[in-house]
Amino acid sequence: MEQRATIIGLGVKDIQASTNFYIDKFGWKLMDSSNEFISFFQLNGFLLSLYPREKLAEDAQVSPEGSGFKGFTLAYNTRTKEEVNTLFEYFRQHGVKIIKAPEEVIWGGYSGYIADPDDNLWEIAFNPFLPLDNEGNVP
């Protein structure tokens, strides 16, 4: 198996509300292949998909119940510490749920956490040990 990811799929309670979150709060563009049942966002090298939680659980043949910490986070790395602060100020102004305000962290970086409408956690971080190329990829 090749070492790569193609799609990160999130099961969401309200597909329209979640889709609007990523469009309105993150400023991302919906792919043309999206429809009323699934939303796709082209990221750097893979896709983020939003699909109704109940349907995703049904497809995987698991229970859709669950609460609390999901055991994973998504991350958006910035090129500077200042960019983290700029994004958090934007998120505050636009009503995004802030879980943890940005702060210096033990591993030498600077990060905080926000949540999407389904409480999927996004770490917004500057990592001085993880440089990004012009497209935002880790070289």
Number of helices: 3
**Structural class by sheet pairing and helices:** alpha/beta
Find the count of extended strands (DSSP E, 2+ residues): 7
Basic shape: globular
In helices, the fraction of residues equals 10-25%
Low-confidence stretches: none
For the largest beta-sheet, the strand count, sense and barrel status come to:
4 strands, mixed
- Name the average pLDDT: 93
| Termini gap | 21 Å
- In angstroms, what is the radius of gyration? 16 Å
As laid out across the biggest beta sheet, the strand order is: 4-7-6-5
Element string (H = helix, E = strand): EHEEHEHEEE
Portion in beta strands? 25-35%
Characterization of the model:
This protein has 139 residues and is an alpha/beta fold. The protein is built from 3 helices and 7 strands. A hairpin with a 5-residue loop joins strand 6 and strand 7. The protein starts with 6 loop residues before the first strand and ends in a 13-residue tail after the last strand.
Short summary of the structure?
By secondary structure, the chain is α/β, with parallel strands linked by helices.
